[in-house]
Amino acid sequence: YHLEGGHGFLRTSAWPFDQLKAQGKHILANYHGVDMRTRGVFPWIDELVDINTSSELDLLQKHPNMKYVFLPYDVGHHQPRFELNTPLKVCHATRDRYWKGSDVIIEACRKLEKTHGIEFVLIENQPHAKTLRMKAECDIYIDQVANLGGWGYGMNSVEAFSMGLACCTNLLPDYETFLGDHPFINVHKESLYEDLIELVQNKDLVLQKKQAGRTWVENTHSVNAVMRSVYTIYKKQGWIEELPRELA
């Protein structure tokens, strides 16, 4: 049994999971971040849970029994495009300029248009279908440089990788260490313009990052990859003897 947000049907009672636990059933609680940060765990649920999971790295430090699981995404929904545009197209999608540092990104990219001939595509307040089309036509995606609402990247980056875009973002050092060998181009708001110059002047690197990003997202965020990681937890817990054949 998976409990989203670490609570059952009733917020003040463990029923019926206390009875299920007594029958030998296994319980997993998945936290999205804001739930644990704002109210913590429900003790009457927490004492029943075998293992907790989250896609938020900081939660690993907030609970002694927490495993990291990447957020799932239908990577196969997108057909990646690896050829480069002439001129290179750099895009940024935003719903809230403050949280992503969009004003810094826009200023740097407008300047880059004048000095290095790139095309900047700002995607803001557009219908979802149009947003996807605009994004898929680009070469480089800039996620965020502010790092005010997370540790480095979100589903916008995962979507960009799935489309075959090179992806720039600002990763916190702990997160970059945790990810290990990743395809992100780590940029900083203080030096974003210079960071982008270095990138757009190296088209071979852009192409390499486009291809590496698609491979990485297939191995981490795809539905099968996430299912494999969850079933691996089952196996380590002793709940199953082996992974399902299609995930092995």
How would you spell out the order of helices and strands?
A: EHEHHEEEHHEHEHEHEHHH
Low-confidence stretches: none
Shape: elongated
Tell me how many strands there are: 9
Q: What's the helical proportion of residues?
A: 40-55%
Strand content: 5-15%
Strand order of the largest sheet: 6-5-7-8-9
Question: End-to-end distance, in Å?
Answer: 22 Å
Mean pLDDT: 95
Helix/strand structural class: alpha/beta
User: Main sheet?
Assistant: 5 strands, parallel
Radius of gyration in whole Å, from Cα? 21 Å
Count of DSSP H/I helices: 11
Your description of this structure?
With 248 residues, the protein is of the alpha/beta class. It is 41% helix and 14% strand. It contains 11 helices and 9 strands. It has helices spanning 17-22, 34-39, 43-46, 97-100, 102-116, 128-136, 155-163, 173-179, 192-200, 203-220, 223-237, and strands at residues 2-4, 28-31, 51-54, 66-68, 89-94, 119-124, 140-142, 166-169, 185-186. It has a 5-stranded parallel β-sheet with strand order 6-5-7-8-9, with helices on both faces. A 4-stranded parallel β-sheet has the order 1-2-3-4. Helix 8 links the parallel strand 8 (166-169) and strand 9. Helix 5 crosses helix 9 and helix 7 (155-163) packs across helix 10 (203-220). It starts with a strand and ends in an 11-residue tail after the last helix. The model has no long low-confidence stretch (mean pLDDT 95).
